[in-house]
Design goal:
The protein is an alpha/beta fold. The protein contains 12 helices and 9 strands. The chain has a 7-stranded mixed sheet, with helices on both faces. The protein has a two-stranded antiparallel ribbon with strand order 6-7. It is globular and about 55 Å long. Its main location: membrane.
Length: about 325
């Protein structure tokens, strides 16, 4: 018979410890002045940009492919600026989640195109907020304009905190399920707002097609198209540009291309990506370029996010990827 184990179970689960530590850190960050929070985030982003790592590599790959007109030197400069903004994005989340909603909304210094948020009688409005600038603020701002349902992916960690933060101005959170989609449809039929993050690659095989994003085939959701066609709701973009360390934010609203409601899936998805790209060009350093937008690939397309980590090796990979995409007829000039 085997001897009984003498190992003692851990006093506290590592996952629980990590979550408690994260919550404590967020409470601390929420108490700090926003200019200091942004400087801390920028410093963290600078460190990420200094040493070879996957985030740094993926960012340069995406910028090199999507903005080929920049060349290696300018793409690297934009990559470094992006990582500093990336640091600010995550450092400011505690401020945006845990401060009173009226305090957060007071940080909106300027607005542009917000007349597009006016709803016609009996008609809802689909509002798309790409991962650009302070997207948590964009959702809070939208919910402050009227009844809003926000499409939401439940999280393994901090889910209750995220739900409370996003609900505190009255938004309804609709999970990414068939039931959640019904909630969105019903909200639009009642003439309400529906908020969606449109630029993540769907994982399911249904409800998405490949369409060009800055000329590169990207797996793209069809949910926006389906909702607009079913309910007749128009579509607009909304994003919150960060003005500077602690200086507040500018809200931008833009009309989406009409083809997002096309009865041809490829046209609709391409129009959606065109609208996202136009938003990104407003403040490209504030886009979530580290995200692996092209991890889903058409058959015959090369892998994007592997290989060596040094800048020169990454740029060689970008050049190689462009050649491979051109050879299989998948590469177009950036839109």
């Amino acid at each position: 018979m085997a001897a009984p184990s003498t190992e003692r179970p851990p006093l506290i689960d590592k996952t629980i410890l990590l979550e408690r530590t994260t919550r404590a850190l967020m409470r601390l960050l929420a108490r700090l002045p926003l200019p200091l929070v942004h400087r801390l985030g920028s410093a963290i982003g600078t460190l990420v940009a200094l040493f070879p790592n996957r985030q740094r590599r993926n960012t340069l790959i995406n910028i090199g492919l999507c903005l080929p007109e920049l060349g290696q030197d300018n793409a690297t400069v934009l990559r470094n600026r992006c990582l500093r903004e990336f640091g600010k994005t995550y450092a400011e989340i505690a401020h945006l989640w845990l401060r009173p909603s009226e305090d957060v909304l007071s940080l909106v210094r300027e607005t542009s195109g917000t007349e597009l948020l006016e709803r016609q009688p009996g008609s809802g409005l689909i509002v798309l907020s790409p991962h650009l600038g302070a997207w948590e603020l964009a959702g809070l701002y939208l919910a402050a304009q009227g009844p809003t349902a926000i499409f939401y992916k439940p999280q393994k960690y901090l889910d209750d905190l995220i739900l409370a933060a996003r609900k505190r101005s009255g938004a309804t959170l609709a999970p990414i399920t068939a039931r959640g989609i019904r909630v969105l449809v019903q909200a639009l039929e009642r003439g309400e707002y529906v908020g969606i993050l449109p630029d993540q690659a769907p994982r399911a095989d249904k409800g998405a097609v490949f369409a060009p994003f800055f000329g590169i085939p990207a797996y793209t959701m069809l949910l926006v198209n389906r909702l607009s066609r079913k309910t007749g709701a128009p579509v607009v973009f909304l994003f919150a540009e960060r003005l500077g360390p602690g200086l507040g934010y500018r809200i931008h609203c833009r009309k989406a291309p009409e083809a997002v409601a096309s009865d041809r899936d490829e046209f609709a998805a391409a129009a959606l990506n065109q609208g996202i790209a136009e938003c990104v060009r407003t403040c490209p350093e504030q886009y979530l370029w580290p995200y692996r937008r092209f991890r889903e690939r058409l058959e015959g397309m090369p892998k994007f996010y592997d290989g060596k980590l040094s800048d020169n090796a990454v740029w060689e990979q970008v050049t190689h990827l462009k050649a491979q995409l051109a050879a299989c007829g998948k590469f177009e000039s950036a839109s």
